[in-house]
Structures are given as C-alpha cells and as structure tokens.
Amino acid sequence: MDEYELIEKYFQGALTCMERVDLLRKAETDADLKNAFIRRQYLEALIAMSPQAGDREKALADYKRFIRARRAKLLNIRILRFVRYAAVAACIAGLTWFLAKEHYAEEPATETTEVKFNSILVPAGQRVKFTLEDGTSVWLNSQTSLTYPVTFAENERRVDVEGEALFDVAKDEARPFIVSCKRVDIEALGTQFNVYDYPSEKYSRISLIEGKVSVYSPKKPDVKVELNPDEEVTVGNGKMSVGKIPNNDYFLWRDGIYSFDNERFEIILRKLELYYDISIEVQDRKMLDWRYTVKFRQRDGIDEIMYLLRRIHKFSFKKDNENNRITIGK
C-alpha cells in the first residue's frame, strides 16, 4: 500500500492509531505528500458543504485522478481547478488551512484509560487562532504544531508545542496550565505569554505579556525561573538568561504583522525562512549585519517583503521557484 492510498484510508477511518501517526509525521517532511493531504482535506470540506448526494462520488473520482497525476508528476489541469474551487469553498465557509491530526496515548492498558489527543500543524505563510476546551485561546504561527488532549486531566492542563504560539490562558487555580517545549516546560494558572521554540533553532524564548509564569527544565523541575510582565527568558546551551522584552510590537504576528526593531538582517532572514518555508542564501556575509526597523504583513508574501527590505539597503535577489530558494547579492 503506497502513501497516497494511506491518505484515503486515513479519511475513511481505516488506519490504526500508529499508522495515522506515522503518516502524519511523513507528511511534515514530504512536500508532495503534505500537498496531497491538504488537497484531500479540502475535498472533505467541500463534501461536507455539498447538498447533492452524488457530489461525493464525483469528488472522490476527481481526487483519485489527481493522485494518479501526482504519481506520474503530471498535473491534470481539470483536477487542479477542482482543488482550487475546493480551497475557495473552504475559505468561504470560514475554515482555516491547517492539518488537523489525532493520535492516542501509546498502548493504553485498558479501554477506560485511553487518552485521546488532537494535533494541529500550521503550514508556512499561515497562522491559526484556536480555543481549547477550557477556554484558553492560542495563536499559532507558521510551521507550528500544537498537541493537546481532547479533555484535560483533573489535576493539570498540558499541551505540547513546536514552533511559535501565543497563549491567553483561562484561569483555573486547581489545574495549572503547562506548555511542554523542546527544552523547557512553562507553568501558568491564568496569564498571557509567547513561546518561540522551533526545532531548527538553537534556542527557545518565552516572553511574558501579562500575569506570571514559571519556566523550568523537565529534568530539573525544582530549578525554576519566574517571569514578571515584560520579561522574557532565553534558553540554550543548558542556560537560562532573563531580560526585558525589547520590542512589544513583535507579538503583532498574531494579527498577521511581523515587526522588527533594529534587528540584524541575519535574524530577519532566518525567521522568513521559517515563516515561508524557503531557503535564503546571502552571497556577501557582511550584509548579514545590516539592521532594519520594519513591519510587514504576513499576507504580503516573500517577494513583496524582499522588495520592501531592499528599499532600506540596496541589494539584488533572485528567486528559484523550482528549488524553493532565494539568493541575495549586491
């Protein structure tokens, strides 16, 4: 059975828990497989909105033709149009473009101890606002995944994050809210804070906007750093460094605005790579020390952002769409 057949079985509910998890992990690293998964999800959205009984059979037939074309690396124009219409229909319905995933706790001892989890993966160039079952609001930035239980436990509310997320935690003194990241855990009762923890980065950063949080390593839970509003902690190389938040406008990313205040070109480009899933190469490394104070909208896209940046410091750039790469030179 190939991976595209597994996608079909995923949406039919015919895969085991581990098969679903394996498929979704592959989709995160295989661009073709991810595109096929997203298109299939659009199809489900279109089917759900369709009042005609025969539309499901027609839609599934179109999807199968798309998969045959994908395998041959030849895109059927008629099917591509269908997928575009499906995407438009999904947007009209107010659906957000993301991969919704679910899995279960490994090998539960009995049926009564089974814990069901959901996961969200936000594609590059997108962001998602999401509300958990306890009323906590979460904004997820590009290429961010959030894993959370369908129903929180009686003694705590725990979620896992990879990427960047801003939490507005609903207050519940009996159940602390815990965010588990790559390097640290963050514990709060009711507060607002930002987590920056992409797997590709060498550091994690937790910034407190309101309230109070404790940050600690899961290996040393007794050694905690407590943050006050307008403070942030940077975690890397086994160390925690606390300081003031330098730019509160940075958190405008949840409104689709990226803000940089006297930031090095190297840092900006690295974040653009994360946000837009593209590789950026700079031919002259001296350019990386250029500094920018700039804001732009997420929906502007990488091309418009490059044009904006070069108005401040002159440079040329060439985009290689086939290899998903931008080369910058003087």
Description:
With 330 residues, the chain is an alpha+beta fold. It is built from seven helices and 19 strands. The chain has helices at residues 3-12, 17-29, 31-49, 55-71, 77-92, 265-276, 301-312, and strands at 99-104, 116-121, 128-131, 137-140, 145-149, 157-168, 177-180, 185-188, 192-197, 204-210, 213-217, 220-227, 231-236, 239-244, 257-264, 279-282, 291-297, 316-320, 325-329. The strands form three sheets. Strands 1, 2, 3, 4, 5, 6, 7, 8, 9, 10, 11, 12, 13 and 14 form a 14-stranded mixed β-sheet that branches. It has a three-stranded mixed β-sheet with strand order 16-19-18, covered by helices on one side. Strands 15-17 form a two-stranded antiparallel sheet. A hairpin with a 5-residue loop joins strand 3 and strand 4 (137-140). Helix 3 runs antiparallel to helix 4 (55-71) and helix 4 crosses helix 5. The longest helix is centred in the first third of the chain and has 19 residues, at 31-49. The model is unreliable at 46-55, 71-99 and 102-110 (pLDDT under 50).
Q: Which key features would you list for this structure?
A:
single chain; 330 residues; alpha+beta; 14-stranded mixed beta sheet; 3-stranded mixed beta sheet; 30% helix
Characterize the biggest β-sheet.
Answer: 14 strands, mixed
Over all CA atoms, what is the radius of gyration? 22 Å
Question: Which regions contain 5 or more consecutive residues with pLDDT less than 50?
Answer: 46-55, 71-99, 102-110
From the spread of the alpha carbons, the general shape counts as globular
Strand content: 25-35%
Overall pLDDT metric: 79
Helix- and strand-based class? alpha+beta
Number of strands: 19
The SSE order reads: HHHHHEEEEEEEEEEEEEEEHEEHEE
Helix content: 25-40%
Termini gap: 50 Å
